[in-house]
DNA sequence: ATGAAAGCGCTAACAG
DNA sequence: CTGTTAGCGCTTTCAT
């Protein structure tokens, strides 16, 4: 039986079919495909015609197998629907596309099992980079795990990128693209302190969460620099949700009357805070100042518009793929992007008591 | 020179290395990998051990080349950051994961060039399904294009899925997962009409957009059924953005004083409407009723909470991959998911004038 | 139950 | 410039 031929069989045409139809050899077709090798213009157009006639498309898998690189980066998140993640995703996708890469999307729902499965999958796929996004619990177990992921991926020729997470250690073969949580929190707390606030509640403390740790550190450092003592009882544990902000605020209002400002751990929390305040008839910013963190679109849509810390989400995503793709002695492995406060309408000096 | 061996070279171990280490043949390893063929338990565990020892992972590309299916579905959107898309994405990703599939994410930014490029890419990748999401311009050109995409993908053995878009024609080899725009709009307009509203403005009319066409049709049919004439001057063209709703409302307020309700084309538009109303001191729902469409999370967060039409975003995404993956005579090719109104706080009977 | 042999579709040295 | 010769790592017949 002769070699399978797409013109007779009902299958996808292969490079061989194209070669046959154009009357050239297979490698020649491969060369016009790759474009990085001299081919006589006449031959070239014959081949192109044949490809068109046959409606030929290369087989990405065959190509990957034969050595050419895979051209895919993976993007691993807890959940795509968070506005926080969505914008990082956009940055990742944009940069990937502009570098001619495809983007694999994987979600873990915070499940360590799935996280591991995803990493294995990416090893199978030979993804060039695996970008893991979002805060984490900063304990030894986490670092151990990331160290394992990093080396496993490294062995498979791909690169782990930790985005918005702290480095698991300097010797770990991973790229880290982080943003300045502490600096942002410091600036924001200073903003409040400078306006005269002395009793500030931090809402949404998450024990052991890297995001929290870093933000709290900035919060406290600002207090120290302003010579203001931090009231630990005002650092309220909670999750990063609107309802958490809502509950916490109701409770705070019931228990204390000396607090003049709320530093919400995230914009989402701040949204809940504002809601509770509105329900309680507390005016913002006249009676109470409120600030958030993240600068998601919601922040500017709240009433009053939220003063918050801007995190460069999209840029974070873009840098993640850029750094992973262009590695080398010239390029940094660990990067921290700046944050800055965005002043809107939720901060005013405290009222005379 | 002997065959490359991972234990000596610094490369990824292959199935051959595993075979060697386990003292069996390559096909045997392949069999324990696939699991769908009898292998002696003893041999089996020897192989498993070898794989573990070598930290072996299959090469997805080699596997795809050799015949096993690709196990990837592609998800094509305009922009990941829209809450609308994000939830469909979540559905797609969830279902894909639960069916053991990987999910490719591609964005087009509404650029036809990129859209075409993406489809070609997916042909190269042998994606099992290519899910295209979001409204479209319902003209002959669109149908032509989708027809082309569908047949091109079909020839490559993959399936085009149109999600939240109308069918380009019955003979086209594509799966269509749509939702009931007209029914939702009909129900919502009826809700307003039943409450006594007679002058309702439809804000965010998009000429030739399928989404708009379908919603307007329901809007008009409800009016007809209630014996109320539609004032065409109240159907206001605009984009699906908050600022559009904001602008349109300011203008409407300045020009007309007989309108008692606004039907916003989307929740985003409704958010802008509410903002403009608040700025103008018009109370909702006492002075003006407002409704939206989509039921994105924002809807319940607005003040007052928005009465709107629920679209089953996640389910849309899940069905899209489910139907594409399990095709057959038993399974439907064209599916329309239901919508329903969600009554919250933005509708009341019109005030006596 | 296991091994030998033959590709899947492509790229990559080599020659000419 | 172009063709020849080898694989990439895996899955399948087909034997044994």
TrEMBL record, chains A, B:
Gene3D superfamilies: 3.40.50.2300, lambda repressor-like DNA-binding domains (1.10.260.40). CDD domains: HTH_LacI, PBP1_LacI_sugar_binding-like. Pfam families: LacI, Peripla_BP_3. This is Transcriptional regulator, LacI family. Keywords: DNA-binding, Transcription, Transcription regulation. PANTHER family: LACI-RELATED TRANSCRIPTIONAL REPRESSOR, LACTOSE OPERON REPRESSOR. One of its GO terms (molecular function) is DNA-binding transcription factor activity. Residues 13-67 form the HTH lacI-type domain. It comes from Glycomyces sambucus. InterPro entries: HTH_LacI (IPR000843), LacI/GalR-like_sensor (IPR046335), Lambda_DNA-bd_dom_sf (IPR010982), Peripla_BP_I (IPR028082).
């Amino acid at each position: 039986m002769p070699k399978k031929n797409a013109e007779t069989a009902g299958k996808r045409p292969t490079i061989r079919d194209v070669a046959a139809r154009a009357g050239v050899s297979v490698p020649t077709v491969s060369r016009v495909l790759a474009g990085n090798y001299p081919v006589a213009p006449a031959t070239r157009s014959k081949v192109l015609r044949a490809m068109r006639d046959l409606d030929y498309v290369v087989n990405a898998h065959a190509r990957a197998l034969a050595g050419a690189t895979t051209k895919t980066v993976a993007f691993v998140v807890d959940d795509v629907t968070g506005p926080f993640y969505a914008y990082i995703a956009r940055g990742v996708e944009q940069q990937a596309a502009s570098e001619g890469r495809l983007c694999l999307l994987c979600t873990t729902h915070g499940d360590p099992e799935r996280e591991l499965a995803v990493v294995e999958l990416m090893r199978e796929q030979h993804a060039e980079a695996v970008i893991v996004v979002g805060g984490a619990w900063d304990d030894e177990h986490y670092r151990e795990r990331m160290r394992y992921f990093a080396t496993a991926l490294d062995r498979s020729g791909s690169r782990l990128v930790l985005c918005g997470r702290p480095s698991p250690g300097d010797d770990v073969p991973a790229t880290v693209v982080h943003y300045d949580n502490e600096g942002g929190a410091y600036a924001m707390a200073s903003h409040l302190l400078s306006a005269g606030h002395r009793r500030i509640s931090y809402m949404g403390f998450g024990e052991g969460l890297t995001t929290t740790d870093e933000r709290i550190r900035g919060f406290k450092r600002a207090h120290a620099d302003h010579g203001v003592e931090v009231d630990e009882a005002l650092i309220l544990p909670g999750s990063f949700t609107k309802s958490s902000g809502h509950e916490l605020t109701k409770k705070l209002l019931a228990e204390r009357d000396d607090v003049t400002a709320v530093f919400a751990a995230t914009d989402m929390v701040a949204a809940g805070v504002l809601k509770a305040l509105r329900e309680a008839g507390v005016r913002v910013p006249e009676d109470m100042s409120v600030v958030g963190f993240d600068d998601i679109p919601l922040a500017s849509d709240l009433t009053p518009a939220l003063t918050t810390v801007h995190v460069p989400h999209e840029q974070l995503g873009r840098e993640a793929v850029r750094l992973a793709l262009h590695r080398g002695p010239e390029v940094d492995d660990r990067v921290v992007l700046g944050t800055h406060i965005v002043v809107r309408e939720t901060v005013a000096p405290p009222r005379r008591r």
